[in-house]
Amino acid sequence: MRLLCLILLLLTITSCYQVERDCSKFKTGTFQFEAVSGTEIFTTKIIRNDSMEIEYFKDQVDTATVRWINDCEYILQKLNPKNKAEKKAIHIKILTTDKNTYTFEFKAIGNSSRSKATATKISN
Predict the structure, then answer these.
(1) CATH no. for residue 30?
(2) 10-60 per-position pLDDT tens digit
(3) CA distance 80 to 60
(4) Domain annotation covers residue 4
(5) How far is it, in rounded angstroms, from Cα 77 to Cα 22?
(6) Which has the closest alpha carbon to 27: 83, 115, 92, 106?
(7) Pairing of strands 101-108, 40-48
(8) 101-123 pLDDT per residue, tens
(9) Does residue 33 contact residue 104 with C-beta atoms inside 8 Å?
(10) Which domain holds residue 45?
(11) Is residue 76 one of the residues assigned to a domain?
């Protein structure tokens, strides 16, 4: 009986927890995130308005269109893809938000594997 009460108590406590997800404040601005590839950490800077995104990675600059599906999901399509892989649109979904950061998952349209990252808003 105690086990049942403990399980009910835990379910009640965890069901009240809501993940913050105020995506609207992350639609535009300048963002930065880090990704790990092997043993190297790469920093990417993104400047996004409502319909365009400019990505600065190493010595490269890429531009993509942004099409918002809802407040927390959008599709990126590169304007000048260099190869077949870059022609695929990227689906991005903001999972959680917190002050000036958001955690998101992304995948190429048609692929099932997803990756996660956290971005920080560094300016409006």
Answers:
(1) 2.40.128.380
(2) 555 555 555 678 999 999 999 998 877 778 888 999 999 989 999 998 889
(3) 12
(4) no
(5) 24
(6) 92
(7) unpaired
(8) 999 999 999 888 888 889 999 99
(9) no
(10) 20-123
(11) yes
- Rounded Cα distance between 98 and 96, Å, is 7
Residue type, 71: D
Report if residue 71 sits inside a domain: yes
- Flag whether pLDDT at 73 surpasses 60: yes
Model pLDDT, residue 11: 54
3-state secondary structure of 41: strand
Counting the structural domains of the chain, the total is: 1
Taking the C-alpha atoms of residue 100 and residue 98, their distance in angstroms, rounded to an integer, is: 6
* C-alpha distances out from residue 93 to 10, 35, 60, 98, Å: 29, 17, 24, 15
pTM of the model: 0.79
Tell me whether residue 11 is in a domain: no
